[in-house]
Structure formats: structure tokens, C-alpha cells
Amino acid sequence: MKPLTPFQSMIHLNLRQKMICCFCLHLTFYGVYGLTFLKDFNVFTEDVNLLTHAGNLSNICLEIRRYEKNFIIRHDEEDFLRVGAYLEEAQKYVPQVKSELRLITRPLHLEDLQKTLADYEKVFLTFRGDCSPESNDFECPSLVMLRKHGQELVYITEQLVHHEQLRMTNFMDTFKGRLYQSIAILLLLSVLTLFMLYGSIILPLKSIEKAAADIAAGTFRQFRLPKKRDEVISVLSAFNQMVMELEEQQEQLFQAKKLSSIGTLASGTAHQINNPLNNIATSCQLALTEIDAKQSPFVEQMLQTIDQETQRAGEIVRGLLEFSRVHTFCLRAVPLKSVVDKVLQLVASEVPAGITIEQQVSEEITLLLDVQKMTEALLNLLLNGVQAIKEPPGCVTIRAEEKDDEAIIIIEDTGSGIDQEDLQKVFDPFFTTKQEGNGTGLGLAVVYGIIKKHNGSIRVESTKGKGTQFIITLPLSKEFSNTTNVQSST
To answer: Per residue in 83-97, pLDDT tens?
Structure first.
């Protein structure tokens, strides 16, 4: 397999690795150029110092020549001493300058200057002993040598100054070129970094922003994910997953709206059925008062059966009407058993053959309840328990007990149970383990909300293949600090 080039390897890095690489490149650039510029600054400092020293040496040599001329003309002892003093100063100054140089090469001018100073001193001492103010060049050869060495001193120091000026000019030109080069590299790194950020972060974020706007407008669209993997791709993948879940939840919401419409229709139908049932019950009771039981015992028995079933149908219709009616949330002291009995009546027609519902609730347990809402919650839990039993026989049990200042209500079934990974999600809206079309995933979310409004708690325990328990905890007699009246509907 052909190995990847460095550029291809860079492309296949994830976002975090790319950011680290860019940071390391910038850090390396700043470090290398920083150290280089620091060294150049030190070299520049030494050049400046050497130029200063060269100027000082040039001034000293000019002073030597000035007092030399005075001595040649007047042979004054003071001029002689002045020349000697400046010579001594120059001879001490040159080694000091040489010792201070660390980063730049010592110019040969310093060596020549040191040698010329020594020669000048010898010639000057010779001139003092051999020549007088009236001597000419032919009578005093040392005078010619003295002037020659004096001119060499001035020339060497001027060359030293010129040399250092030229060095500084070259240094500034070189430094300016390297500065431009570093700026160009910095700009290149910045452009590459911006290009990477734009391609890896800004463009995907703009895509997510546009997709979020589409979702707000009701248009769902998934991203086509490239083969590479990085943090942004993970975000896009999570966004795709969110879009899929939103699509599923939208379908479930549509289904819930359909069920709500069906519930409204059922409520109206129940209201319409209630009047014929009342007429049937009245007619049946009138017939019972007119019939002779001794002559027609069978007819009397049939009429009594009709009356009983009519009353039973009326109870179911009244339960449906009360269950679907919008009402104000209101808490009042109610025996729990009366609520459970009402729930069992409503659920009786939904229980398949082979499945039994058992009740173990004491008549002494009294709670502060909103009857309709608690009826809705218990009905949901009982129907879930019945539906969890896939193959009869089976049993759903509702029992309650008092513990300290609380009532513990347990709804238990012998159904198929819930997977452990799903237990934490059973109360989430639109979450369901039922097959598609058999549930909206809203029932347990509604139950959770109702129990919370009663200042209680609900939890679930389940063992796969053995059944499920929903455990509700409600306060027995504790008065609620704020009795809320909340408009709600099923």
C-alpha cells in the first residue's frame, strides 16, 4: 500500500489533532524566530558597542595627533605628557574592547591598531631624545616615522569606524529581509489556519444553522457525511440522529393528535348514546312494573337482565364522559379504594380472557387526590400491565399500603418485562417499547406528570421475562402548601 504524504496525513487528522498541529507550528515558528531575533539583537548590541568604541578610539588618536603637533612645534613637556596619557589610555582601551566581543568576529583593525600604538610610542620616545623644534625632516628621520605612524593611527581608527558602519548597514538590510520573510511565513500560517477553520468548523456550523432553520420551518433533512471522522462529523452525525428521532416523534405526535381526535369523537358519541340508554332503562323499568312475574317469569328475567346491562352500559358511558371532560385540577380527600374501583370498572372491557386483575387496597387509605387525573394515571398503568402480558394466563395486581406518612401504591404485572437499558427512558415523552401503531409513548409521561402534580414520586422495577412493578409514593395527610388549579385535559 502506498504510504500517505504529509499533506494527506494532515487531511486525515481529526479536528483536535489539526488544531494541535497548527498550534505546534505557530509555537515552533514563534520560538525559532524569537530565538533568532534575540541572537540578532545581541549581535546588533555588540556592533553598536564596537562602533561606539571605534569612535572613542578615533577621538583618542586625533587627540594624540593634536598634542603630537604641539609637541613638535613647542617641545612643551605638558604636550609630551598629554600624548603619553592618551597613548596609555588607547593601549588599555583596545584589549578591553577585544575582551567584550562575544558574538561577532574581532576586526583585524584592532590588532593593527594595537601594534601601531606600540610602534608609535617607541618612535615618539625616540623623537623626543633625537630631535629639537628646529630640526627638519632630513635632520630628524624619527619625525618622519612619527608622522607616518600617527597617520596610520588615524587611518586605522577611521577604517574601524567605517567597517562597523558598513557592518551595521548590512545587518539592518539582512534583518529587514528576515523580518519580511517571517511576516510572510506568519501570514501563510495564518491563512492556512483560517482555511482549516473555515473548512472544518465554519462551513459545517453554517450547514447546521441552515438545517436548524429548516427544522424550525418543518423541513427535515439529513447530512451526507464524508468518510473522514472528526469532532464536527460527530456533531453532524448526532444531528442526523436528532433529525431521525424528530421525524419519528412527529409521526407519533400525529398519531397522538389522531387519538385525541378519536377521544373527542368518542366523547361526543358517548354523550349521544347516553340518551338512548336512559330511554331503554326507563322503558325496561316501566315494563317490569306492568308485567305479571308469575305468568311470564322468563320475560321478567330478560327484562331484569336488560335493565342491569343498561345500567352497566350507562356507568361505562358516564365514565368515558368524565374521563374526557376538561376540568380544573383540584385536590380533595378521597378514599383510594373508591378510585381504584372506578378504574377497574373502566378497564374491565379491555381485559382479555385468561388475564385477571387483583386488588389489595384497604378502605382506610385516604389521600388528597384529583380523582379524574389519578383515575387517568392508574388506568394507564393497568392497561400497560395488561398489554405487557403477551400470552395469557397472567395477572395484574394493584395493591397499596401505608408507611410512615406515605402511601405506597404498587401496580405489578406478570408480563414480559422491560430491558435494563430502557428502564431509564420509560417516562420520556414518545418513548415506547410497543410495536409501531400500538402506542404513542405518551402514556407513562402523562402518568409521571400527574404523580408529580400530586407531590408524589414514581419509579419502575423490572426483570426481563418475569414482569414489571410501578411503585407510586404519595403523601397520606400532608397538606400541600400551594393547591394548584391547572387546566388540563387527557
So the answer is: 889 888 888 888 888
